[in-house]
């Protein structure tokens, strides 16, 4: 297979981890005789520094002319603590999601047997956890109208959803559940929010098409509790943009490190693959950032193009690295000299 | 001291747990020679059944003519799964908060030494945790304009905050931090939301008045993770309404049971005290609901009127009941015949 892959390393540890994913994809290409072409472009704070724009037109064009996008991370503390900054790195990511119509963000959360001890949660609570979160990604309060009054003393954000936006991700979530444990849990705040009530209505209607899948409802506050108390109760979690952001980062504690969590963002025409950890600026260039989330995102990319065998091989490499303790320091109490690059090398060699 | 206390038992397990708190307050009154007068009124689904209104005028009037309100719980599944219901129990609670101007919801989260084993989190992660969450309670997306398009296919909720709303709770949070570990963590999503940027700006300004308190910022997604990974890093958490709802329920897992978590909702003129667990309808009338959250809410009520010694005595009673395993089933693997009422009786006797 021939694939044109746009690589957007972005900020912080983005470049280091993405480099490992590219390395692994190149090994796959060689091993399976595919032709993957990688083209690089800048995004985020790095792009602001270069061009003043967090998503330069050149970058967007490259993405639109590629089959898939491999994304690193975005964000820089120099913008975070300046509430009045006019341009911010995150706008680059949000615009990319919107422009490419990447409406479904898919975030698998798994408790690896070899890592059960690393989680702050007790083994018996998490062993066997296998959740897949479907987070809506181009609607809700992220993209609704924002206002700031002239005197700067009142600010607002609008959370808005339409039936179509809810329907399309709901179909994806139910289809995913059909080849999993056949359960979808809708997370919302329908006892307070009008938009959540629309979610509940539309999802209930769509669920009629999937009689073999069980639909459950959970208020987001309760969900935030249940994910820790009893994560094994979940199969597919379906939710809107903001709740999905919170719930999925929270769920990362189950695996023992956010450095393990990959994601795919898909739409009707494009797809993007990125680790769910952020730019982690404190770790930049120290060689301690875990590349596994990025490498597993590359595996999700292969899955997306139905290269299942290839994706599986990457996952085996990852599991092997975890088993042999070839892991970055946050997961490694034995060896502390294993760098981002070494983990990448190991998985590359394995392939 | 003379106190007029409005008691609003509400739905589900509300009445059973509130009855224990009242019993304990009566014991305190007797022991310390206070005069507490209790007057009851209905709210929530119960009130809808009786009057069609989740907050009857009679109830609101009683609250306005009382010194404090003891609240049970609200919510009924028959409304939850009916997105088109016109009247819903939660409106009673929200209206009460708004009408009484209860803008600050204070939720302490503590890891009791005797209960460390009950938490899904490992001991070493939670031992010593002592967090106090200040959640804004009368603004944000809970109270902004809601719309549903005529065709029913688009719904929206507006999240709006003004400087004044942010300032007043920020002062309370910083004052609280001054008599604690002198740290406030603002939880927001300032990299995406305009309202969060206003929060960050105003809180930073107010913090200038409290040079002895350290201010930190955390994005809500990261906060949802940090609360589990390292809860001991927190002292006072300050946040807006929706994030506070999620984060505080999540934090309840630290204590081992949401049945332990009390809250106070305060404003310039009124104050209300309620367990943070909901109506828990499955447990209604089974005698298994934990009354401690309600009893500790009563202790917060006493604190509010500077009856510190009295409040302390209740807390000692609670700790003793936990130590002796006089607890409801969710915390009790030894005895499973200890009911809601028995826990109340024990603490009453202790006093
Ligand atoms: C960087 C930020 C805008 C982004 C989000 O909130 O969506 C990130 O937290 C994520 O989850 O991908
Ligand atoms: C019942 C509901 C409206 C309420 C809220 O969301 O505020 C509850 O969850 C709480 O936290 O007090």
Automatic annotation (TrEMBL), chains A, B:
User: Binding residues for Mg(2+), per the UniProt record?
Assistant: 221, 245, 249
Record-level GO BP terms: L-leucine biosynthetic process
Could you say which EC number(s) this protein's record lists? 1.1.1.85
Q: Does the keyword Calcium apply?
A: no
- InterPro entries for the chain: IsoCit/isopropylmalate_DH_CS, IsoPropMal-DH-like_dom, Isopropylmalate_DH
Q: In which pathway does it act?
A: Amino-acid biosynthesis; L-leucine biosynthesis; L-leucine from 3-methyl-2-oxobutanoate: step 3/4
| Keyword Manganese carried by entry | yes
Its top-level enzyme class, in one word, is oxidoreductase
Keyword list (alphabetical) reads: Amino-acid biosynthesis, Branched-chain amino acid biosynthesis, Cytoplasm, Leucine biosynthesis, Magnesium, Manganese, Metal-binding, NAD, Oxidoreductase
Q: Where in the cell is it found?
A: Cytoplasm
Record text on cofactor binding = Binds 1 Mg(2+) or Mn(2+) ion per subunit.
Q: Name one GO cellular component term.
A: cytosol
Question: Which positions are annotated as binding substrate?
Answer: 97, 107, 135, 221
The cross-references to SMART domains, in alphabetical order and at most eight, read:
Iso_dh
Which is an annotated Pfam family here?
Iso_dh
Instruction: Tell me the ranges covered by the Isopropylmalate dehydrogenase-like domain, including all copies.
Output: 4-347
- Cite the position(s) of the site with description Important for catalysis: 142, 189
Name of this protein: 3-isopropylmalate dehydrogenase
Origin species, per record, is Gelidibacter salicanalis
């Amino acid at each position: 297979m021939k694939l044109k892959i746009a690589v957007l390393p972005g900020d912080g540890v983005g470049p280091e981890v993405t480099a490992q994913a590219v390395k692994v994809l190149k090994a796959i290409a060689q091993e399976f005789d595919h032709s993957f072409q990688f083209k690089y472009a800048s995004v985020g704070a790095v792009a602001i520094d270069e061009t003043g724009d967090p998503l330069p037109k050149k970058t967007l064009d490259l993405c639109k002319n590629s089959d898939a996008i491999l994304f690193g991370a975005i964000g820089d503390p120099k913008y975070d603590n300046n509430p009045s900054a006019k341009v911010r790195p995150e706008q680059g990511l949000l615009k990319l999601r919107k422009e490419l119509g990447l409406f479904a963000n898919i975030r698998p959360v798994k408790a690896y047997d070899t890592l059960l001890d690393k989680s702050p949660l007790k083994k018996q609570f998490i062993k066997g956890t296998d959740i897949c979160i479907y987070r809506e990604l181009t609607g809700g309060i992220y993209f609704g109208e924002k206002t700031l009054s002239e005197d700067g003393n009142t600010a607002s954000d609008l959370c808005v959803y339409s039936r179509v936006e809810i329907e399309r991700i709901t179909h994806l979530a139910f289809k995913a559940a059909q080849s999993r444990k056949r359960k979808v849990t809708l997370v919302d705040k329908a006892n307070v929010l009008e938009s959540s009530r629309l979610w509940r209505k539309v999802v209930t209607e769509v669920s009629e098409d999937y009689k073999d899948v069980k639909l459950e409802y959970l208020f987001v506050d309760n969900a935030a509790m249940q994910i820790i108390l009893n994560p094994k109760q979940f199969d597919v979690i379906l939710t809107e943009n903001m709740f999905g952001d919170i719930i999925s980062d929270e769920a990362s504690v189950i695996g023992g490190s956010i450095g393990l969590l990959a994601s795919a963002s898909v739409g009707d025409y494009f797809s993007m693959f990125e680790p769910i950890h952020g730019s982690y600026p404190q770790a930049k260039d120290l060689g301690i950032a875990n590349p596994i989330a990025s490498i597993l995102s590359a595996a999700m990319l292969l899955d997306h193009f139905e290269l299942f065998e290839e994706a599986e091989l990457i996952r085996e490499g990852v599991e092997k690295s975890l088993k042999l303790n070839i892991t970055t320091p946050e997961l490694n109490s034995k060896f502390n000299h294993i760098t981002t690059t070494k983990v990448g090398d190991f998985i590359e060699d394995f392939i």
